[in-house]
């Protein structure tokens, strides 16, 4: 149940949790219903950001929105609007399930809250997000199209939005949860390598991303981690961690968990989730 005063937790729902990336506009309503019902049962005040999945990404890719205006792309302005429209479509599906789960969710279109400069956030208008939280609502944002001051247009990933919220919202929010379709970050791509091992703990400090194994502290190497042939115009776990490495607050924690498995959020909250990756951000003096 959402009660005013519960700790604010930033939750990123990856597109892989709600759609099959190979099937345009596919929506896994059963997985999502279970996930969102759990969110309504744990004593936190979530702020939700969801990704594009097979709604926003294929259209953004087709019209090459990510790199800005391009005269070689036919009907690019229409493509910009189609991409946004696909995101509104999936947002409405997620909103319906949130309301069905009894969560006082309220959608905010990211394209109206953020402006970009060369693909990065230039300005953000977070007052509506803060006001909703203060009034006991659960704001729901999403990856979106956005105006870019230099390129004309662009794509704003939910992974960038969630870090902007973690950095700028005036709350004691120390926790971020990333809902994925795998148990966390692996040392190799688990979809290709059966011997891939889950990296259980990562540290981010001064922009450096490291982890420990039996041979000591290591820099994270992403070369083998990317899933090839992806439809995404934004970028996977590496991008999530790179965005997290921009955080300046101390002692933050991000949890990379499998949102497609049963009871993940309830088990995480109860401290009995076995397999996940925890990211310690700017911990220690
Ligand atoms: O899936 C991308 O959001 P993401 C949104 O969070 C669009 O990176 C419009 C492709």
CATH topology: Carbamate kinase
| Major pleated sheet | 10 strands, mixed
Number of strands: 16
Mean pLDDT: 92
Main structural class: alpha/beta
Q: What's the total helix number? A: 8
Shape: globular
Segments where pLDDT lies below 50 for 5+ residues?
none
Radius of gyration: 18 Å
CATH class bucket? Alpha Beta
Task: Tell me roughly what share of residues is in helical segments.
Answer: 25-40%
> What is the CATH superfamily classification?
Acetylglutamate kinase-like
How much strand content do the residues show? 25-35%
If you had to describe this structure to a student in words, what would you say it looks like?
The protein has 285 residues and is α/β, with parallel strands linked by helices. It has one domain (8-281): Carbamate kinase (3-Layer(aba) Sandwich). Helix content is 30%, strand content 27%. It contains eight helices and 16 strands. The chain has helices at residues 15-18, 29-39, 53-62, 76-100, 127-134, 158-168, 236-244, 264-270; strands at residues 8-13, 45-50, 105-107, 114-117, 120-124, 138-142, 144-148, 152-156, 175-180, 185-186, 198-199, 201-205, 208-213, 216-219, 252-258, 277-281. The strands form four sheets. The chain has a ten-stranded mixed sheet, with helices on both faces. Strand 13 (208-213) and strand 14 form a beta hairpin. It is globular, with a radius of gyration of 18 Å. Isopentenyl phosphate binds at residues 15, 51-52, 56-57, 60, 83, 87, 143-145, 155, 157-159, 233-234. Isopentenyl phosphate (IP8) binds at residues 15, 51-52, 56-57, 60, 83, 87, 143-145, 155, 157-159, 233-234.
């Amino acid at each position: 149940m959402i009660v005013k005063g519960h700790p604010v937790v930033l939750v990123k729902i990856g597109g892989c949790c709600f759609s099959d990336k190979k099937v345009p506009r596919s929506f896994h309503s059963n997985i999502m219903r279970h996930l969102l019902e759990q969110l309504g049962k744990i004593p936190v005040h979530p702020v939700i950001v969801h990704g594009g999945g097979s709604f926003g990404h294929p259209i953004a890719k087709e019209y090459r929105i990510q790199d800005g205006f391009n005269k070689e792309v036919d009907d690019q302005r229409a493509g910009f609007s189609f991409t946004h429209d696909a995101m509104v479509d999936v947002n409405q599906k997620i909103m319906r399930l949130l309301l069905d789960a009894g969560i006082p969710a309220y959608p905010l279109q990211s394209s109206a809250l953020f402006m970009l400069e060369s693909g990065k956030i230039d300005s953000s208008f977070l007052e509506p997000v803060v006001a909703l939280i203060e009034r006991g609502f659960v704001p729901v944002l999403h990856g979106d199209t956005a105006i870019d001051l230099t390129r004309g247009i662009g794509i704003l990933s939910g992974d960038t939005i969630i870090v902007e919220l973690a950095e700028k919202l005036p709350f004691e929010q120390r926790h971020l949860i990333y809902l994925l379709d795998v148990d966390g970050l692996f040392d190799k791509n688990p979809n290709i390598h059966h011997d891939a091992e889950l990296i259980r703990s990562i540290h981010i400090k001064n922009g450096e991303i490291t982890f420990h194994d039996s041979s000591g502290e290591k820099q994270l190497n992403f070369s083998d981690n990317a899933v090839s042939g992806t439809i995404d115009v934004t970028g996977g776990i590496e991008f999530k961690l790179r965005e997290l490495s921009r955080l300046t607050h101390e002692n933050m924690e991000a949890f990379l968990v499998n949102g497609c498995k049963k009871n993940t959020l309830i088990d995480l909250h109860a401290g009995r989730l076995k397999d996940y990756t925890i990211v310690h951000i700017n911990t220690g003096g």
